[in-house]
Write a structure and sequence with these properties.
2 helices, mainly alpha, single chain
């Protein structure tokens, strides 16, 4: 894990107690549990950002579909 930096932060006693318990249960250090939780949160945020981008693409596609439908209707009415 190159490029690692150390940070200091404060957490509630409840979170600390949970981390202590989880660390003992799994044998994973508390710092690693915190690291993994932040990594997981970051991945979720990236996925949400991608989903928002896909939503705009879908909306743009719907607008394009409406324009195509309107153009087809216009062409049909002109040919009749």
């Amino acid at each position: 894990m190159s490029g690692m930096v150390r940070i200091n932060t404060r957490i509630s006693k409840t979170l600390n107690d949970w981390l202590d318990k989880r660390s003992k249960e799994t044998g994973v250090p508390k710092s690693t549990l915190v690291f993994l939780a932040i990594e997981h949160y970051m991945q979720q945020q990236k996925a949400m950002d991608m989903a928002e981008g896909l939503t705009s693409v879908v909306e743009a596609g719907k607008g394009l579909e409406s324009k195509i439908d309107a153009q087809l209707l216009k062409q049909r009415s002109e040919s009749e």
